[in-house]
Sequence to fold (206 residues):
Amino acid sequence: MKHFIQSPAKINLMLRILGQRPDGYHNLQTLFQILDWGDDIEFSEIAGQGSHEVTIEGFSGLLEQDNLIYRAASKLKPFAQKKTDWHIKVTKRIPQGAGLGGGSSNAAQTLKFLNRQWDCGLDVSQLSQIGAQLGADVPVFIQGESALACGTGERVTTMAFDTSYILLLFPNLSISTAEMFRHKELNRNQCEVPFKQIHNSNFWIN
Fold:
């Protein structure tokens, strides 16, 4: 049996960096807008040994064990009550290094799908805690709605924004999140926007 799921992209309507923590991560205040465009994921149940095997197709130049999809599945295995094996094929549209959350979205959809198929019984909060171990953007994709995220991205408050359409332009360049946060000219001490002003687009800076 095959299951087809969209893995949506996101944009940051606002991203404020409030300071760097002792552990090297940054405290953020960001507005995520989930888009109705992204990657497609095909989950196919395969005849395996019932050992929660996961194989992945659709990526080049990336070891399977380093893929966020594989890592997401590995995090769920200890909770699995049902033993099934899956082949996961991803049709990539979200470019890497674009800040659109492609890998995080793929991981979140994998967590949600396998949570059901493996009868893990985890709720959204528990899945989000696992997702936060994989990446700061994963919890908002697990929630599945546009949101305000704080902390390193793990504290998520669902919100709605009046953005009827988005135009995405792809320049021929990319930058990793880690590289961006290491940049010497990055402003790491921006001011937090008061919650009552969050919907005021005058405060939306990146």
Summary: Residues 10 and 34 are 4 Å apart (CA to CA). The mean pLDDT is 85. The radius of gyration is 18 Å. Helices lie at 68-76, 102-117, 124-134, 138-143, 177-182.
